[in-house]
Amino acid sequence: MKSVFRLAPEQVEARILSQLDRGLLKEVEGRLQRVNYAKREIAVVADGEIRYLRVEPDSQLWFDDQKSILRCFHPLDQVKVVFQEGQPNVVKAMYAWEKQIV
Question: Rounded to whole angstroms, what are the CA distances from 56 to 49, 88, 100, 101?
């Protein structure tokens, strides 16, 4: 029987950011155009193009610095997505935030 050690979300996030720094992952910042909750797919408009991505069950989702679920994200949300290129592109981490009124 294999031993499985659960990593804290912060440890997983640190691993993702380390892979991003090494160029193994890509990142994009833009607006959600579409969220398909049933198929766990999103479309993000960024840099004048639409990127289609799959959100896996182990994808790290953060909304206002709190671990979240996909249902917290809606079209027109400003997001930053860290993903692995492929067919399909796979979300490793997605961050969204509410506008802060100062």
Answer: 22, 11, 29, 33
Which residues 6+ apart lie within 8 Å of 14 measured at CB?
none
Cβ–Cβ < 8 Å for 44, 27: no
Q: Which residue has the tokens 């950011």?
A: 17
Q: What is the pLDDT of residues 19-28, one digit of tens each?
A: 888 888 999 9
Q: How far apart are CA 31 and CA 13, in angstroms?
A: 21
What pLDDT digit, counting tens, does each position of 31-63 carry?
999 999 999 999 999 999 999 999 999 999 999
The whole domain housing 69 covers: 28-96
CB 92 within 8 A of CB 84: yes
Band of residue 8 on the pLDDT scale cut at 50, 70, 90: low
CATH number at residue 65: 2.40.50.320
Burial class of residue 53 in the structure, from the number of CB atoms within 10 Å of its CB (0-12 exposed, 13-18 middle, 19+ buried): buried
